[in-house]
Amino acid sequence: MIMIVVYTSPGCASCRKVKQWLKDRNLPFIEKNIFKTLLNDNEIKHLLMRSENGSDDIISKRSKIIQESHVDIDSMKIDELITFIKRNPSVLKRPIILSENNFQVGYDEEEIGVFVPVELRRLADHSCNETCPNFKACQTMQTAFQKEVH
Q: Which of 4, 113, 115, 122 is disulfide-compatible with 29, CB 3.0–4.6 A?
């Protein structure tokens, strides 16, 4: 089973939406509250590597810490950036959703469907009837997938 990791923070409405979306589809995930779980160097480096535009995708340059301290994220070396993020996790955009094959920042109703495993999407494409032992799961996935497509 593909594991999904969701980086969240308390009071984040988009984080709640993502978690509810995953729960509604019975997709297992690990939640990492960025204020309670200390992110390690490798984890931060992995997030930076997975994002298409590096730090721009995951760091909010409008965050209070960056604005008040006049930090230039773009001029930092990777190790300096990692240390800065560890000390100031609030600079991270939220939620960050990560799986083996997918990466998304924020809640995007049209894009989040990529976290439904391909096998389940294929299953949802095929209709089955009430005699099928997986009817309930098929019906749930078919409904969920149709919501994503439309």
A: 4
